């Protein structure tokens, strides 16, 4: 593997980050808790959009000096976000539109096998032309 070194800007950013103490930010949880009743009963995607909109409007943004990527989950650098009770009980943020993202730790440690879809035979395909490929029978088991 090639040897990589930090650029002066990245080295400065790393030193600046590591010189600061970690904190816990409750701003995000407080904003979301105030909206709890207003979004009750809405479809989950609409609820998520409204909550995100409120966060963008109310949460003060943090833009660090020398940063190319701006923004943070809190208004201070190196702050851990405190999640509300509702967020802790809700499904993962990585589950959307019925799709669940993979367990990345398992993928990194065990690897993954490629999906092998099973093609339907011609009579089956003509019976259901919109479902020529049956993805439900694909195998995604790790080796």
TrEMBL record:
GO function terms (MF aspect): catalytic activity
Residue ranges of domain PFL in the record: 8-143
Region (Disordered), start-end ranges: 115-143
Pfam families referenced in this protein's UniProt entry, alphabetically: PFL-like (PF02901)
Top-level division of the source organism's lineage: Bacteria
Signal peptide: none
SUPFAM superfamilies reported in the protein's UniProt record: PFL-like glycyl radical enzymes (SSF51998)
Name of this protein: Glycyl radical enzyme, PFL2/glycerol dehydratase family
């Amino acid at each position: 593997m090639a040897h990589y070194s930090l650029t002066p800007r990245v080295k400065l950013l790393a030193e600046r980050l590591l010189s600061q103490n970690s904190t816990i930010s409750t701003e995000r949880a407080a904003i979301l808790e105030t909206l709890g009743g207003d979004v009750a009963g809405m479809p989950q995607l609409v609820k998520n959009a409204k909550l995100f909109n409120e966060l963008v409007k109310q949460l003060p943004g943090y833009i660090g000096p020398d940063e190319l990527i701006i923004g943070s989950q809190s208004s201070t650098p190196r702050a851990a976000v405190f999640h509300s009770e509702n967020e802790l009980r809700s499904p993962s943020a990585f589950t959307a539109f019925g799709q669940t993202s993979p367990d990345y730790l398992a993928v990194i440690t065990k690897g993954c096998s490629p999906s092998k879809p099973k093609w339907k035979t011609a009579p089956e395909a003509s019976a259901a032309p919109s479902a020529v490929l049956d993805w439900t029978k694909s195998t995604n088991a790790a080796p």
